[in-house]
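[09:14] KT: can someone run the structure on this one? pasting the chain below
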Amino acid sequence: MSEPRVIKKYPNRRLYDTVESRYITLADIRRLVIDKVEFVVIDKKTQDDITRSILLQVISEQEHQGEPLMSQDFLAQVIRSYGSAMQGFVGSYLEQSLKLLASQQQQIRDQMRGVMGSETFDSIATLTQKNLERWRAIQEDIFRAMSAGGTTGGNNAHTNSRASEPEDEGPEPHEKRV
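[09:31] RB: done, structure tokens below
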């Protein structure tokens, strides 16, 4: 196994990738993790390994963007685990659980590719991702309209595409429902 990539953290809080000879961001660190690139982050001043601290910053940044992965209750339970007799067990348990989850996800992906073929699986995955993005856009439009007092201004493609559709609002107030 080759030596891990060295990232240096300077006193000005900037991260420097010694392989690419450039300053990088936490988003770049996240990409290294996703790409399974082995690296260490060294504090330039003290020469301490601060990789865990930087990874926690990446997690914190991710938790503030989009939908959080960890609930407030989960985080509180993790904090309570520090200093208890179970601290080592909890950390090991969480690590093994995530490894098992990743392994099971890969097995399911492999089985789906085997059943449907690689191209079909990839097409379905792409379609699912596009549908999810559309659903999120619609949700954002709805939330935006709700926060704006229910007016959208008619500039939204989603509402414009439905403008000519008849709406079934139910019976008139004087009609009796059966």
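[09:33] KT: thanks! DSSP finds six helices and four strands in the chain.
[09:34] RB: yep, looked fine to me
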